[in-house]
Amino acid sequence: MDPRAPLVIALGLGQVLAYGSTYYLPAVLAAPMAAELGLSVSTAFAAFSLALVVSALCGPRAGAWVDRHGGRPVLLASNVVLAGALAAMSQVHGPAGLFAAWALLGVGMSLGLYESAFAALVRLWGSDSRGGITGITLLGGLASTAAWPLSAWLLTRYGWRDACLAWAGLHLLLGLPLHASVPRARSAALAHPSVTDADVVPTTAPAPPGLGTTLALAGVFAIAWFNSTAMAAHLPQLLQASGVGLSTAVWIGGLIGPAQVAARLAEFGFLRHWHPLLSARLAAGLHPLGAALLLALGPVAAPMFGLLHGAGNGILTIAKGTLPLVLFGPAGYGQRQGLLMMPARVSQALAPWLFGLALEAWGPSALWLTGGCSLVALALLLRLRALGG
């Protein structure tokens, strides 16, 4: 067994817990929360959107803390903050409390989601982190598979308040031991011999190689996360508008998770011999290809759309971690990750609303929006060769 595997497994399981108790929580609990609190479901989801915005605003500072202190203390802090926020959510009795709890969850998300896990790995392994980042996303991709059934079971048996308390308990009983196993980062050369003292992160952000590269990557990630969140929120309605029955639409939605995992396994296998820019370009083209097939061929192409969208999304999740590493290097990685993901978190917060408006106005032709945005992302990735790729 690779001696580095236990760390990757610990960080990956930590992501299952972090995403399961935050990003995937509203899909199951938002409706019962709203019903008991006398709110609309859209208001409950607006509180979740606030968490994404707070996460975006806090992300650069959280990344800078990983750069300075290593991932261990930041990830441990994420478990404490998320546990406290979930416990607070279980006690809310109105919209003010709900929004405050989700805002605190947003702080915890900035400390504990993929960006911090990737930065923790880079802080230890430097430029040799690509395989570990892929491994984290392989496990993290199981978050919805594990979290939705667990949340649904807790909701049915105990109610949404106790479900929140159960997730809080998991952060303390499972999350803290997992992240306590992360090695402490040293102040000089870290775990990987290629990382020198010059790579140790200063207290201020290093000057990036080029503003164009930074803006291009931020744009790519914002588009990728807009499309991913839009599909997560509206895929069944989109497919039904395209002529697919409800049961078939749900079945096709179920293909996205396995497609993501399969694509990440491909990245872990033969695609690891490609430059990350090449695999990212391939991934950026998969959603518009699937959209074109669905628009041209109708319901018969719906399964292919689900598979192509899922595969592209799976690889782009890895690219979020690997592209900043190969284009900028390990120095200042955590803070840069936070900065690059700020537009993506905001686009996530807006995606369900904006794509919902497009779907209502245009029907299946709303795919021109996500497909066109993906082509813009592909163009930006192609340009990165001249900028610094």
From TrEMBL:
UniProt entry tagged with the keyword Transmembrane helix: yes
GO cellular component assignments: plasma membrane
Main location: membrane
Transmembrane segments: 42-62, 74-93, 99-121, 133-155, 207-226, 238-262, 282-302, 314-333, 353-382
Keywords (A to Z) from UniProt: Cell membrane, Membrane, Transmembrane, Transmembrane helix
Cellular compartments annotated: Cell membrane
Keyword Cell membrane listed: yes
Listed GO MF terms: transmembrane transporter activity
Record's bilayer topology term: Multi-pass membrane protein
Protein known as: MFS transporter
Species name: Ideonella aquatica
Lineage: Bacteria, Pseudomonadati, Pseudomonadota, Betaproteobacteria, Burkholderiales
